[in-house]
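**User:**
Everyone, produce one record:

**Assistant:**
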Amino acid sequence: MFYFFNFTFLYGFSAFIYSSSGFINRLIRSLYPNETGAIVSALVLGDKTKISEETRTLFSLSGTAHLLAVSGFHIGIIASVVFLLLGFIRNRWSKFTVFTVLLGLFVVISGSQPSAIRAGIMAELVLITVMLERRIIGLNIVALTLVVVMLFSPKIIYSPGFQMSAASIMGISILFAPFRRSLQVLLPLSSWFGELIIASFAVTFAASTMVSPIVAYYFSIFSLVSPITNLLIIPLMGIAMIWVFCSLCFVPINWGIALTFASASSTCIYVVELIN
C-alpha cells in the first residue's frame, strides 16, 4: 500500500511539473518573439534547445554563456523576489516554509540543474542563519552547501555545470575582498556609484579567475573580454529576469500589463545581444 501511494504521488508530481513547464513555455512563446523567447525559455525553464547557434557562439566568445542557463545568479534573483513578495507573512517559520516550497518548485520546473540546486540550498542556508540570528560567514555557507549537494548526489562532481557553479561561488567567497581592496587602491572612488563599480569589478574578477580555467578546459575558449562583458551584461540580465517573471505573473491579471513587462525584458535582452 505504501509503495502504491509513493508511486502515485511521484507520478502525479512528475505530471504536474511536466504540465507546468509546458504551460509556462506556451506563455513565453505568446509573449516574446522567436529568438528572445528562446533565451527566456533558457532563463526560466533551462531549455536551450531553441537558441540559435549564432547566439550561443556570441555568448561563448564574450564569456557570458553561463547566463543562458538557470544559474546561481538567476536563483539568487528569484529567491530575493520571492522573499520580498512574502513580506506580508509575519510568522518567520511560516514564511520560511512557503519560501522553501516556492523556490523548490522553481528549481524542479527549471530542470533541477546542478547550479540551480546549489544556489537553492545556499539560499535556504542563508535564510536559516538569518532566522536563527547567527552571523553569516560566506565561506562556511558555501562549503556546507557543496558538502550537502555532494552527499545527496556524489556523481555531481563530474558535472561541468556544477564545477563551474562551485568554482564561481568559491572564487567570490575567497577572492572578492582582496580584489576589492586592490581596486580601491587603484581607483580611489569615494561616491556610492564608485563603490558599486568597484564591487561589480571585484565580483566579476573573482568569479572569472576561478571559472575561466574550467571553461577553457571543457569548451576550448578563454575570453579576455569576459570581465568587461559580464560587468555590463549581468545587471541587464538581472533586470530582464525580473521583468520576465513580472510578465508571466501578470498574464492572468491583465494581458496588456504582461506584454508591457515582456517588451521591457525583450529590450534588455536585445541590448545584451548588441553588447555581445
Remarks:
- Residues 1-7 have pLDDT under 50 and may be disordered.
- Residues 240 and 260 are 12 Å apart (CA to CA).
